[in-house]
Amino acid sequence: MLTLVTGGARSGKSRHAESLVANARGVVYIATSQIFDAEMAARIQHHRDGRPAHWRTEERWQDLAEIITTDQAADEAILLECITTMVTNLLFAYGGDSDPDGWDYAALETQVNDEIERLVAACALCPAHIVLVTNEVGMGIVPENRLARHFRDIAGRVNQRLAQAADDVWLVVSGIGVKIK
């Protein structure tokens, strides 16, 4: 079973996603954030400290089909946090050190979509309950810079693809989850 949990920043989507896997026999938590500075290191440590000790954590944002496999049991769960961070990491990995104003966003989106399709295929084969957390990026104003506009567009299309593949989709607003699919 594949569940997508979406919402804005600080909406409570992580807590909601964690509640969906709370009764699983075992949980694999896939953390997609990377440490770039002291503030991010502190945030990541705070998240690590808040997870149950019996959860296994995998810190990774690429090649997730190596973790999401048929080896998991139906009474286990996988929680991936978060798709939008994963998309960000993929864009910067594929874009390289060059200026984002010069990136070929169509080519980058194709590469991101390839990774997402591998993720969807792995989820379809995995017997565990999989919960993907993502940010809803389409409810604000149009960003003023090229990178932010393309990121919003790519992340929005990724979210649509994942929602299409998901069995359940939850929108979380102000700590309240509403099942929309």
Mean pLDDT: 93
In CATH terms, the superfamily is P-loop containing nucleotide triphosphate hydrolases
- State the separation between the terminal residues, measured CA to CA: 13 Å
CATH architecture: 3-Layer(aba) Sandwich
Oligomer: single chain
Largest sheet: 7 strands, mixed
Q: What share of residues are in beta strands?
A: 15-25%
Q: Quick one: overall form?
A: globular
Indicate the CATH class: Alpha Beta
What does this structure look like?
The structure is a single chain. This protein has a single domain (16-127, 134-173), classed as P-loop containing nucleotide triphosphate hydrolases (Rossmann fold, 3-Layer(aba) Sandwich), CATH 3.40.50.300. The protein has helices spanning 13-21, 38-50, 83-95, 105-125, 146-165, and strands spanning 2-7, 27-31, 56-59, 77-81, 129-135, 168-173, 176-179. The chain contains five helices and seven strands. The two termini are 13 Å apart. β2, α2 (38-50) and β3 form a beta-alpha-beta unit. The chain has a seven-stranded mixed β-sheet with strand order 3-2-4-5-1-6-7, sandwiched between helices. The chain has 181 residues and is of the alpha/beta class.
Give a topology summary.
Blueprint: E1 2-7, H1 13-21, E2 27-31, H2 38-50, E3 56-59, E4 77-81, H3 83-95, H4 105-125, E5 129-135, H5 146-165, E6 168-173, E7 176-179
Parallel strand pairs: 1-5, 1-6, 2-3, 2-4, 4-5
Antiparallel strand pairs: 6-7
Helix pairs in contact: 3-4, 3-5, 4-5
